[in-house]
Amino acid sequence: MATRRTFRGGIHPDDHKDATCALPIQEMPPPARVVLPLRQHLGAPAKALVQVGERVAQGQVVGESGGFVSAPVHASIAGEVTAIAKYRHPGGFMAESVVIEARDAAPAPAEGQEPMPWPPHPFTLPGANPDYESMAPDLLRSLIRDAGVVGMGGAAFPTFVKLSPPRGKRVELLVINGAECEPFLTCDHRTMLEETDKVVHGVRILMRALDVARAIVGIEDNKPDAIDVMTRAFAQVPGVSVVACQVKYPQGGEKQLIKALTGREVPPPPGLPLDVGVVVQNVGTAARVADAVMSGLPFIERTITLSGPRMAQPANVRVRLGTMLGDVVAFCGGLTGDPERVIMGGPMMGVTLSDMEVPIVKGTSGFLFFDAQSAADLEAGPCLRCGRCVDICPLRLRPAEIARFVEAGDLDGAQALHVRECMECGSCSYVCPSNRWLVQLFRIAKAKLNERKA
Amino acid sequence: MNEKPDVATAPAPAAGNPAPAAAPVKVEPPAKPLLKVGPSPHLHDRDSIAQIMFWVAIALLPGVAVSFWYFGLEAVRTMTLSVVACLAFEAASLRLLKTPGSLKDGSALVTGILLGMNLPPTAPWWLIVVGALVAMVIAKHLFGGLGANIFNPALVARVFLLVSWPTLMTTWLKPGVRGLVSADDLAAVTGATPLGLLKEGRLAEMAASTSTDLFLGNVGGSIGEISAAALLLGGIVLLVRRVITWEIPVVFMATTFIATGLAYWIGGPEHYASPTFHLLSGGLVLGAFFMATDMVTSPLSFRGRVVFAFGCGLLTALIRLFGGYPEGVSFAILLMNAATPLIDHLMKERTFGTVPKPKAEVAR
Known about the structure:
The complex is a heterodimer.
Chain A: E1 26-27, E2 33-37, E3 47-48, E4 55-56, E5 61-64, E6 73-74, E7 79-88, E8 94-101, H1 137-146, H2 159-162, E9 173-178, H3 187-194, H4 196-210, E10 214-220, H5 224-233, E11 240-245, H6 254-262, E12 278-282, H7 283-295, E13 301-307, E14 315-320, H8 325-331, E15 341-344, E16 351-352, E17 366-370, H9 388-392, H10 399-407, H11 411-416, H12 427-431, H13 438-453
Parallel strand pairs in A: 1-14, 9-10, 9-12, 10-11, 13-17
Antiparallel strand pairs in A: 2-8, 3-5, 4-7, 5-6, 7-8, 13-14, 15-16, 15-17
Chain B: H1 49-97, H2 107-117, H3 125-140, H4 153-164, H5 166-169, E1 172-173, H6 186-189, E2 190-191, H7 194-199, H8 203-206, H9 211-216, H10 228-240, H11 247-267, H12 275-280, H13 284-291, H14 302-322, H15 329-346, H16 359-363
Antiparallel strand pairs in B: 1-2
Helix pairs in contact in B: 1-2, 1-3, 1-10, 2-3, 2-4, 3-4, 4-15, 10-13, 11-13, 11-14, 14-15
């Protein structure tokens, strides 16, 4: 194992992982009702394949992939489709969703027909086989696509797309992201400890699908147990090394992780890891890939972390996709009071919810329930030019200067200072002693620049 | 746009929809209160301007205490008046000019202490008030207030007073005179600073102040510059609290030390003072730790700050060795303040993932 690798810049927030990192993943029983947004991934939304009133089996496709960069959506419980309408998505917008409610018995059969067996046998993907070493890469990719697997680190980019590099791009290294640098979240940590075999198989499948001989698993060294377990699990797998990275936010950012592990710098957008011969996948994604290829299981459940000071009993819990957040919170023991802020994802890049009536989706890594003390809701002041944001920007941008241009309405000036390259990690806002909303200014600038281009 | 956008409570009450022409729509209150939303990040390291200024003020205390010890009531009087006048001008400016900032952010307190430290203990009251006026109103608020000034306010005031009333600004109380001094007695209890003696070529008298005197502060000088030890202690506090970073003080002092050392080594001790003398005398330690590190007026990036500090150190040495003034720290810092936008522009770093431009392209 190499010495602690890292990138330049970054910040050291308190990781708050003690609350949940030692808690085994709880299994939440399937809920009586799920709301499945047809958009749980980056790219085109899925298209509804079912109708209201139709009975569906667990694992049945309810939304087919809407394009190349898209993913199908599967029924996460067996039951009856009771509605197809717009429901609030945890991302804040209203999304076309399929609602399924569990039913105790099959519907009365039509005249002269056998009653449908109930509950119906769960769907699995045809062609799945534990012996993936004998399977063609194309078959692996199509199984991963048909299982609806998307990146589980948060962006929810369809996994098989990353496994299908365009002609002319050579991939020679697979990076497995086990950094989990966002404070509070521990679902990847627990996945590495509890689903070790699946992660190992998933990594081997991904390597085979990509035809690469080398993979590196990067883990922040605040998870020594995970590093230990993964190192032992991969000891017999040729070409795979497990590397400890320094605890530093945003170590789990794709670009920062590649830099730390390989020294390579991914070019600015539209540059991709592919441009430096790398594909990055999250450890949780690897486990779902193993499920899809070896057992034919569609992506219908995931592990999430519920934490934060308002959570009575912080937890790691495996839930069916589409389970309503309120049901998961109730299952885990509820809240200790009204939260000041509810965040989907980590506290650095997560989005706040306006309403807890939202379902768990594929990209949900967790929910945080903050009280007034922990939510950064401070008054902003003028820029002191202290340069802390410049010192820590992991992309070596100059946030203080960009902010001046954005505030002055000079989009060209902001663009000349590379505002478009900002990945919105939030480090600059975190360190700003004037508590300026730097990232938000950059989001505004990027949105305006996109608008202007359109 | 220094105020935060309001933390919106979503969903916004149909802000984009055209208002209905006829009867006003009855807005149903939501069944339960919606949650508060806001943009990420949701964490903050909780450092603030007020905390930074608080720690700078704390770090200045040892230096102030030493001057109170050696200069007694005259120093107390000057320091108090400087702080009070700066706070008053800050309050007036905030109110009249509506520039950003607040008395509570502590920046005026720090400027007040720094201005006091840059004055001779016997400065007359009106000189101090004029200094505070120049610092707060002209150098700070007319430039746009906190964060917008190009030059360090306390240094602008010091240099303004120095060139306007050179005699008053170079009348140095001898250490150990602890009571208030009347105008008639002034001549009897004042003398030159070690750097002043050096400039006049009185090397033998200069040598009467040993390194220990310079280190502890048993010499004539401005209130805040006499004891290198006390200032160093404060500087270490700032470094430990991460209020400042090491590069400016270290590069600044090292550059002056090396440049004056070269002169000493080449020109000989009969003409030049030792680099240790230069390091410990005058305002070098004060300037390097407390004035050059002023965030507002120094470059944004590490590399920029190194260049800035090198310039400060070199100019200080050049002025002390060859200039008309005995002391060059304030001029050096102000000149480098002026160069800060240029340094920021030239010291831009290659952003992540970009390749260095070929030489030819850079030259164009």
